[in-house]
Structure formats: structure tokens, C-alpha cells
Write a structure and sequence with these properties.
Elements lengths: L4 H20 L8 H22 L10 H22 L6 H25 L1
Helix pairs in contact: 1-2, 1-4, 2-3, 3-4
Length: 118
């Protein structure tokens, strides 16, 4: 179970990010949550795959800030935005800035806290 904790934390934080966004725009949080989450969840999954591939030959530490955290954050953001655009969801510049900031805080923040506590 401990092996899957970082992935579960990342997914939970992506869901929280999307729920906060829906709530801040007075949208029904639960009714459209899957529609909002799926592009970022796919980007997250791809990021995990890339981070694992980058670590090939070395010990993969998904809780590491670098390179795992940065790769996972970047893939979640870019993949999420590309999939949102392809699926007809909004990708306004202001949203991209907010998404980059909040996802960095969430996906890199917990990793930085773990590193500081080690």
C-alpha cells in the first residue's frame, strides 16, 4: 500500500484542484467533476510513466521533488491543457496560469514538505 501512496496523493490533489475550480465558478462540483478531472488525470498518469522511464536504471522515487515531481507536474499541466483544448474545454491564458500555480503548489508542495521532513 505504501508504494501507491504518492500516486494516490497526486490523484487526490488533482481532484481537489478541479473541485475548487468548479466551486469557484459556481458550477455544480459533483455533476461535472469527472469532465473536469479526466484531462488532468490522464496527464498525471502520463507524467508518472515518464518519471518512471526517466529513472530507469536508478531507484525510482516518486516522492522526489526532482526529477519525479517536476516531470509529473509538467505532464499533468501540459497534458491536461492539451486534452482540455482537444475536448472543447476552456484553456484561457488566465486559467493556464492559475492551473500551473495551483498544481505546482499541490504536486510539488507535498514533495518539498516530505523532503524537508526527511
Amino acid at each position: 500500500m505504501k508504494r501507491f501512496a504518492p500516486a494516490a496523493v497526486d490523484l487526490l490533489l488533482v481532484i481537489v484542484f478541479c473541485a475548487i475550480g468548479r466551486r469557484s465558478h459556481d458550477e455544480d462540483v459533483l455533476a461535472g467533476l469527472v469532465k473536469t478531472v479526466w484531462p488532468f488525470a490522464v496527464g498525471l498518469l502520463v507524467g508518472w510513466g515518464i518519471a518512471w522511464a526517466v529513472a530507469r536504471g536508478r531507484r525510482f522515487d516518486p516522492a522526489a521533488l526532482w526529477p519525479s515531481g517536476v516531470v509529473i507536474w509538467g505532464s499533468t499541466l501540459v497534458g491536461g491543457m492539451v486534452l482540455r483544448a482537444v475536448s472543447g474545454q476552456g484553456t484561457a491564458v488566465s486559467f493556464m496560469i492559475v492551473a500551473a500555480s495551483v498544481l505546482a503548489l499541490f504536486l510539488l508542495g507535498w514533495r518539498a514538505a516530505v523532503r524537508a521532513l526527511r
